Each structure stands twice: as structure tokens, then as C-alpha cells.
Amino acid sequence: MSVAPGRRTVSEAETQRANRGDWDRIADEYQAEHGEFLRDVGFVWSPEGLDEQDARLLGDVSGRRVLEIGCGAGQCGRWLVSRGAEAFGLDLSQRQLQHSRRIDQDTGVTLPAVCATATRIPAADDSFDIACSAYGALPFVLDAGLVLREVARVLRPGGRFVFSVPHPIRWTLPDDPSADGLRVTRPYFDRTPYVEQDEEGTVTYVEHHRTLGDWVRCVEGAGFALFDLIEPEWPPGHDRTWGAWSRQRGTLVPGTAIFCCTLRGALPAGPGHQ
């Protein structure tokens, strides 16, 4: 049972242990609530519903080796497989990966995946052409720069990495999709992690905050060049509420930031570059 959440410093070990346990606990509920929206074989970048089939942020994936970081139940990776990619998934939660195996069997589209942390990717250097992460791993690690350096290590020269995270501006707002959530209650520049814990003081959930500038410095510091930063607008006709993401908020403030990067030396012309 969680007590009132707060803000305090936590270690990477506490962060990993808490978030692995949290995702194992909520995986069934998460898939039941969001599975239809995500689709068993589908690539949705964000609660706004931005679809890779339309956005083409990864370019042509056919014949490419692709790593999905924080793959959850493998919906995005399975879509990549269906488009001719040699895709692999990685996730911290064993229960999420059990759901991935179930969906593999249901659909006949299989995503090979391992249970591991994004801060220590179990893959050889220069072994992938593309990496991607849709709300996976990066908000839930203490050292995002370490994850980006690991991704750089496993990508081949000129490789592309695209990842989506909650937009940093959301840190300033209450976790409330209604009109009452449209007020600034926290400093944008306060990077103290959001922490939930049980009655014994054991950390049960952690989310880390970085400003847009922090993210850009992480990207550049890992050897990537940022070629686009996308803040999806709330689309007409999309009325689905997901946590604090809603039409009421989404038409006024951004909810998602998508960073499109390549390893330096092969900068593409822009989104959808083939």
C-alpha cells in the first residue's frame, strides 16, 4: 500500500527495484486498459495517438535490425516485425514480457525480447541500425545519459534513435486531466524525483524529471545529433483520456516530446527521411 507521494533523492538501484516491481504489479491492468488503443501489432508514439505508420520517424525499417527499449508487451516491436524489420525488444518487467509472449501466440507475429535494464543493454557494439523507445525506460532511470550512451554503443555508425517521453512541461502541472489540472504547481527547474513509497518507507515507484535543455545535452553528450524535436498536437476527434493526458489539456499544453537523433556523421534531412 502506497502512502502520499513526495519528492526526494533516490539511487539507481532503488529506482530500478521500484519500477520493476511497479510494472510487474500493474502490467495486467495496464494491458487491459490500454491494449486496444496500442493494438497488438501497432506503433503508437504517445497518448495523443501519433502513429509511426503515418509519422515515419524511423524511416524505412525493412531489412533493418531494430532494438525497442522498454518494449512492454511488444506492440511497437511487433509492428516493426510486420514491416520487415529484424526487431528485438528489451524491458525491465517480466510480467510485461509475459504479456508479450501471449500476444505473440495470439497474433502469430513474434518479437524476440529479453528482460534487462536499458542502462546495461545485453547486446554487442554496433549491432543495430535503429533503436526506438515509446515512453519506455528513459523517464524511469536516474541516469538518462547512461542509457543514451548504451544506445550509441549498440548502434552502427549513422544509426538512428527516436524516443518519446512525457513532455517536461507536465512536471509543473498536477496529475489531473480536468480543468483543475491546468495550473502550475511545481517549478519547472526542480529536478527532484517523484517518489512513491509504502508504509515501511520502501520506494515503490520513481519518475525522474529533465528539462528540454537537459534532454538535448544528454543526446549531444552521448554522441548523437538531434535532427528533430516533435511535440504532437492533440488531434481532432481524439477524445481518449489516458491518465493526465486529455483533450482539455492536450489542446492547450504539450503532453509528449519526441527526440529524433542520429549518431554524428549521418544527419538526415528531417522526419520521414528514407
Automatic annotation (TrEMBL):
Give the keywords, sorted.
Methyltransferase, Transferase
MF (Gene Ontology):
S-adenosylmethionine-dependent methyltransferase activity
Q: Which InterPro entries match?
A: Methyltransf_11 (IPR013216), Methyltransf_Superfamily (IPR050508), SAM-dependent_MTases_sf (IPR029063)
List compositional bias (Basic and acidic residues) regions by residue number.
Answer: 9-20
What's a single GO BP term from this record?
methylation
Transport as a keyword?
A: no
Superkingdom in the source lineage: Bacteria
Where is the chain membrane-spanning? none
- One Pfam entry for this protein is Methyltransf_11
Methyltransferase type domain ranges (all copies): 67-163
What ranges does the record give for the region Disordered, renumbered to this chain?
1-20
Q: Which PANTHER family does the record cross-reference, listed alphabetically? A: METHYLTRANSFERASE, N6-ADENOSINE-METHYLTRANSFERASE TMT1A
| Protein name listed in UniProt | SAM-dependent methyltransferase
